């Protein structure tokens, strides 16, 4: 019989080894590549747009085409000069672990289908619960595709446990610095605009507590039902951690669900400085962390932790007849009962293998290195008369702008100038360095969670910025 999809052993080996070689070579030469790639839809269409081919072609030819056209047309988020958004430093062990999980195509939904996959998810979640001082016996969690899905899973759970079926008067509170995925999740859940309170932040970008208390009190007077506060443990803009203990006190007093979005900053718990800043994180009812950010995992792996695992099963378990044979006993967790997905890839494997291989110690050192590097960057910037710090180094994020002492540039000029500096750096493709807006100022933002990034990489990029700034100001004079 003609094989449909099978390759011979020799073909599989030669194809597979070729791909391993390509990945290794990417790791080896990453520094000599450019982190930025830009292409228009038209350019991409010219290369790729075609009907699904009826006849196949040699596997090597397809691979060559992909290597020539796909990989170079993507930003390299693990590049040491990828400073923007939240970089994805990744690591080689997890990269290979993901290949293994995919190669064996392990179904990570139910215990009976793969007891070891469920067990590794339980074990690695226990490691995380312990890291964040959550109760390991009663607590629980689930790996998701990312922070957005973890936040969504958390808010479904919060609503279910706090409001039951009727959430028509329920009110949810978050700050204007909370990540957009929270608003998305709230919308997915079907809350109306009138049920969302976006609370302004103070000059340090933290939840304004007084304003929050005012809103809660007003809502109570109106007969509404406050049910949840979303705090940020490391905002994406500035790395700022909300006053977690104060917010936890409010939640206790007001009987509100306390969700902490630690997708960006949660991992900093592994460093001394981070764990101090994250004081109070252990008081959350639910906590989002995002291993594909600062736990150095390749995409996709996010994670939700909860104080009480039964909250998840009470929210998500359904008992359809076709799954009755795989139910098993309670300690044998079916993760399809803990979240939205039934069929799930085996995300725990990469987390497990990388921590077993490198040891937690390596993660701790890398995260501490990142935090220190951002502080060094701040020192460097403060020593220069050209730069102004807008938000100091916080959990490896720093925001600054070009604002030379002697020039007295207007706010409008500064905005235009900093925007243009960033645009020229990106256009050079040497570094991925984009802007954000803080207190109505356009500022340059660096997120330094890549352990491959050194102070020299940063200095090179700052020199480039200085050079462009002078160029731009010269051009504007003409
Ligand atoms: C990145 C991020 C998210 C979203 O996580 P994804 O993994 O991109 O879905 C949510 N919250 C914060 C604070 C983030 O930084």
Automatic annotation (TrEMBL):
BP GO terms, sorted: amino acid metabolic process; carboxylic acid metabolic process
GO MF annotation, one: carboxy-lyase activity
Keyword Lyase recorded: yes
Cofactor: pyridoxal 5'-phosphate
SUPFAM superfamilies per UniProt: PLP-dependent transferases (SSF53383)
Transmembrane segments: none
UniProt KW Lyase keyword: yes
Name this protein carries in UniProt: Decarboxylase
Source organism of the structure: Polaribacter glomeratus
